[in-house]
Amino acid sequence: MPATLTPRRRRAVAATLLALAASALALGAGGAAAHTVKVGIVGPFSGPFAHYGTLFRNGAEAYIAAQGGKLGGHDVELIYRDTGGPNPGQTKSLVQELIVKDKVDYLGGFVFTPNAFAVAPLIQQSQTPTVIFNAATSAITDKSEYFIRTSYTLWQVTVPMAQWAAKQNLKKVVTAVTDYGPGIDAETAFKSEFGKQGGAVVESIRMPIATTDFAPFVQRIKASGAQAVYTFLPGGPPNLGFVKAYNENGLAKAGIQFLGTAETDEYDLQKFGDAALGLTTSFHYSAAHESAANQKFISALKKRDPNAVANYASVGAWDGMFVIDKMIAATHGQKDGLKAIAAARALQWESPRGAVRIDPKTRHIVQNVYLRKVEKVGGLLLNKEIVNFGPQIDYGLDK
Considering its fold, how many domains does the chain have in total? Predict the structure, then answer.
């Protein structure tokens, strides 16, 4: 330092240099100070579908805990917002608040397709990377280039089921689906692929989303002359109601085979009792999947909450946080939607469900789909994987 500086001035300059040095050390590789990354998680935390919110919370928080409490080297704050159910208007308001007021860096969650559709313009305008943990209509990722999906689509799990059904010499099938985006996707996918395989859908039944009495619908199935029913319903009470009606109205005894997707979900599986034995579904995850990655996932869930359920929604949240983890690392914790999405497009990893990757074109997860049959082991029901159909793309977005 110049000799003309007084001792007091020297101390002031030295303090300034030390502060600058400390600031430089705090800078990330991206050239900006480390900060807490905010992630908004949107889902139903109340009402008839509140279990989804619990599953999202358990999966997301278990993943963060398994990483030592940080993602991409940064502290993370999760901000939860309750949609209550399929409510596009309220969901849009909540997401706008998360983006504008809470200034979140990322978004995750979304159970229902209408809710995801409603927020797409906000996501696109704000360039907020958003990971879909559940909503399963193919067209969602088309609505914004900042959508990534770690769940599944109905096309993805239905096409291999239709192929398998044809190989079992099933010729006539009824489709019975909930009348909203994913259900219509499921119906269209099954009819399209089953027809290509030489089969016929003799009746297509669409059930209102608020349906609680399924008896009239299963009576139509029984009277149709079909050999099987292919169905899709949203998780929770509808699954229990439909399977109960399927058994009580004698469809199983009449030899009408049950072909489903998420209807034997682990969250509700034990509630079915022996009525679920033998039910056949085509899906991308089972808690009974045998792998080290799945055991790690289940252990992390149970460590966080002994009553936590490993199912498709909690694994969608777990893998969703993996994707957010890698996006945070790629952007050094800074807001850069384009860079984050570019990093996500290249991801591939070993999920609790098996080997997966993000399709760089559709931004949807490519994953194995399994034929599962409900069996009882040690007094508990489980979805036994009996056929691995191998990696499946989203056939709905591939058209």
Answer: 2
pTM: 0.89
Collapse the DSSP code of 349 into the 3-class scheme (helix H, G, I; strand E, B; otherwise coil) and give the result.
strand
Angle, CA of 185, 188 and 193, to the nearest 5°: 120
C-alpha to C-alpha distance for 382 and 286, rounded to whole angstroms: 8
* CATH number of the CATH domain containing 78: 3.40.50.2300
Residue 24 falls inside a structural domain: no
Tell me the two tokens of residue 207: 């059930």
Q: Alpha-carbon torsion 116, 326, 57, 391, what sign?
A: positive
- Identify which of 160, 222, 152 has the alpha carbon closest to the alpha carbon of residue 189: 160
Task: For residues 130 and 243, state if they share a domain.
Answer: no
3-state SS assignment for residue 360: coil
Look at the block and give the residue holding tokens 């997707």. Answer: 261
Q: Which two tokens stand for residue 262?
A: 């998420």
Query: Which phi and psi (to 5°) does residue 242 adopt?
Result: -70, -45
Tokens standing for residue 269: 């599986």
Radius of gyration over alpha carbons of the chain, in Å?
A: 24
**Interval 112-164: pLDDT, tens:** 999 999 999 999 999 999 999 999 999 999 999 999 999 999 999 999 999 99
Residue 181 falls inside a structural domain: yes
Domain holding 205, by residue range, is: 155-283+370-392
Judge if 209 and 233 occupy the same domain: yes
In the predicted model, what is the mean pLDDT of residues 43-54? Answer: 95
Q: In this predicted model, what pLDDT tens digit does every residue of 192-243 receive, in sequence order?
A: 999 999 999 999 999 998 899 999 999 999 999 999 999 999 877 889 999 9
Q: Same domain, yes or no, for 253 and 114?
A: no
3-state secondary structure (DSSP) of residue 47: coil
Q: Does residue 125 sit in the same domain as residue 60?
A: yes
Please compute the mean of the pLDDT values over residues 253-279 and round it to a whole number. 94
In 286-380, which ranges are continuous DSSP H helix?
292-304, 312-330, 337-345
- Confidence band for 397, pLDDT divided at 50, 70 and 90: confident
